[in-house]
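Structure ticket #2291
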Amino acid sequence: MERQRVTIVCFPGIQPLDVVGPHEVFAGVGTLLASRGVAEGGYDVHLAAVTPGPVSSESGLALVATDPLPATPVGTIVVPGGPGTRAAIRDPRLITWLTGAIERADRIASVCTGAFLLAACGALDGRRATTHWAHAQLLADTYPAVRVDPDPLFIRDDKFWTSAGVTAGIDLALAIVEDDHGSEVAQTVARGLVMFVRRPGGQSQFAGPVWSEPAPPGPVRSAQDLVTLEPAADHRVPVLAARVGMSPRHFSREFTRLVGTSPGHYVEQVRVEAARRVLESESVSVASAARRCGFGSAETMRQAFLRRVGTPPDDYRRRFSVTGPSTG
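Resolution: structure written out below.
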């Protein structure tokens, strides 16, 4: 196949990893194909801006946009995010160019809050889209015509691809590579970036209890510690409440108030995280992992994975295991 042009749009206040992550993925395809003696294919990656030259990022890292925004946009347009999107939305030159590019380009992708720029152009009206979880509600409130889903790592809706924040831009770029060049090329590039495999788009942005603020020291915090230390133990509300010296009703109410989720949901969250670690690092069957992590049955764990991770355990293990699937 012919080489494809990828234009990464730059503006002041950009998130640098939103640029560098996808850039390295697309550049890696060319390196891989060249190592195999394939002269064609790959991507020509360009950093472009309204005014070419150095572009300040949110962290202070300077990027250099060597190209002006192309007069005839073709191939793939990648719109990164960052705090600079707030000012970029008010730049008529950028918005006018992007509106035209959306009509002409073969594929439009956004990383993180880059979705706000696409939404400002009306490109996401009536479409399903995502962004960084911390900005999803603002995107939905500001652009109610967009069907915002805050959970997935990335979403494809026709030629429009949107992703969560920062490292999710790498997953987005790998998915685009897979769409263009197949799974084997995408996974080889992923391994070169020291990623086991690309994460599926349906996987949740959230990774278990790391996103749950611990309760202040006290009975509820003690209950959280009990669950974390022994995911497979009996953590029904009456049992947990008794272990920390509270009545079941008062415990359930206080736990939900302090943690932000019910005890049952929290227990499931911790067990899913424990099962993920087992599936990633050990050659065990799904049924064995389910028993060890407190689910009781493989089907119960499967339903929990679909709710929490967005993919079934077998698929998760196939993508992330460093030991290979169990033969037992």
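Closing remark: The mean pLDDT is 89.
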